[in-house]
Design a protein that fits this description.
Blueprint lengths: L3 E9 L12 E9 L9 E9 L4 H4 L20 E11 L9 E7 L3 E4 L5 E3 L16 H14 L6 E4 L7 H10 L3 E6 L2 H10 L4 E4 L6 H8 L4 E6 L3 H10 E9 L19 H4 L3 E4 L9 H13 L7 E5 L4 H7 L8 E5 L4
Keywords: Oxidoreductase
Pfam families: ADH_N_2 (PF16884), ADH_zinc_N (PF00107)
GO molecular function: 2-alkenal reductase [NAD(P)H] activity
């Protein structure tokens, strides 16, 4: 087990401002020993799948005030994120060689993980392992918490989901449909709109880039207003939604992707609607809801096996193509959950 192998890594060149570019990262090949050092509590893993997530752009920045609970990348070192891996060696009592795990790992072929407290063992291997970067990983927890715990839509309610074809949105919409809601999504291309309506079972969808008037688009889809808005976009979309919420409607916010890389956030012009309509607005993140993971598995595994839920993935082969895949996330180039396949076993 103590053999030395080459280890391709994705290295952050320097701190990033604005959208990350491929040139902000480079591929380096180092040597790693496939053995955990004596006296360590670490595990050594072979990475199989890596998850491309929007939050990674913040982790590339030199932040004056770091977001609580987030790990920031260091120039000259490999970036990291959620992934699926196989344990090759362990000196940690919770993991054994041969275990499959998901959680935080390095963007490299092999990772020595000193503190594997953000790793979860994979027990259900009849499901594609890549699903543990998405529907059975962080995006799944986000969508599940948003619909079943934070937003709690009731049968017959009208639900709107922005960025609906992404890793979280596609699941939130299907969860709301399974609860008996009327569900509409917005996305950034006709192909993605067709996916929402024809494959994912949304009642309606629209391409926000082709709509000259978002308020009119929402009135067309929700003639009687919106009960629950699952917010991932912000800006002009949020303004239009505020005009179309029902009285006592709820807005739950887990992201605002339109605002991440502009020097001055767009001002909200319709904010008085919050008072006029007595709206409830709540922010949330997966980080507060990992206790729901057993419930997520219990609920979602049967849906996957019975094909009651569809999960769309965009898988890129090879760690050397990781930077391109990650950067493509911010221009909407991906079709479904963006994943980098490092190895298939």
């Amino acid at each position: 087990m103590g053999e030395e192998v080459q280890n391709k890594q994705v290295i952050l060149k320097d701190y990033v401002t604005g959208y990350p570019k491929e040139s902000d990262m480079y591929i380096k090949t180092s040597i790693i020993k496939l053995q955990v050092p004596q006296g360590s509590n670490a595990i050594l893993v072979k990475n199989l799948y890596l998850s491309c997530d929007p939050v990674m752009q913040f982790q590339m920045r030199k932040a004056e005030k770091h977001l609580s609970g987030y790990y920031y990348f260091t120039p000259g070192s490999s970036i990291n994120g959620f992934g699926v891996a196989k344990v090759l060696d362990s000196r940690n009592p919770n993991f054994s060689a041969g275990d499959l795990v998901w959680g935080t790992t390095g963007w490299e072929e092999y990772s020595l993980i000193e503190r594997p407290n953000w790793l979860y063992k994979i027990h259900h291997t009849d499901i594609p392992l890549s699903y543990y970067t998405g529907i059975l990983g962080m995006p799944g927890i986000t969508a599940f918490a948003g619909i079943y715990e934070v937003g709690s839509p009731k049968k017959g309610e009208c639900v709107f989901i922005s960025a609906a074809s992404g890793a979280v949105g596609q699941l939130a919409g299907q969860f709301a449909k399974l609860l008996g809601c009327y569900v509409v999504g917005s996305a950034g291309s006709q192909e993605k709109v067709d996916l929402l309506k024809n494959k994912l079972g949304f009642d309606d969808a629209f391409n926000y880039k082709e709509e000259p008037d978002l308020d009119a688009a929402l009135k067309r889809c929700f003639p009687n207003g919106i009960d629950l808005y699952f917010e991932q976009v912000g800006g002009k979309m949020l303004d239009a939604v505020l005009l179309n919420m029902k009285i006592h409607g709820r807005i739950i916010i887990c992201g605002m992707i339109s605002q991440y890389n502009i020097s001055e956030p767009e001002p909200l012009k319709k904010i008085m609607q919050i008072a006029f309509k007595r709206l409830s607005i709540k922010g949330f993140t997966h980080r507060d809801h990992h206790h729901l993971y057993p419930k997520l598995l219990e609920t979602v595994l049967p849906y996957i096996r019975e094909k009651k839920i569809v999960y769309v993935e965009d898988i890129v082969e090879g760690i050397e193509n990781g930077p391109e895949a990650l950067v493509g996330l911010f221009s909407g180039r991906n079709f479904g959950k963006q994943i980098v396949a490092v190895a298939h076993e």
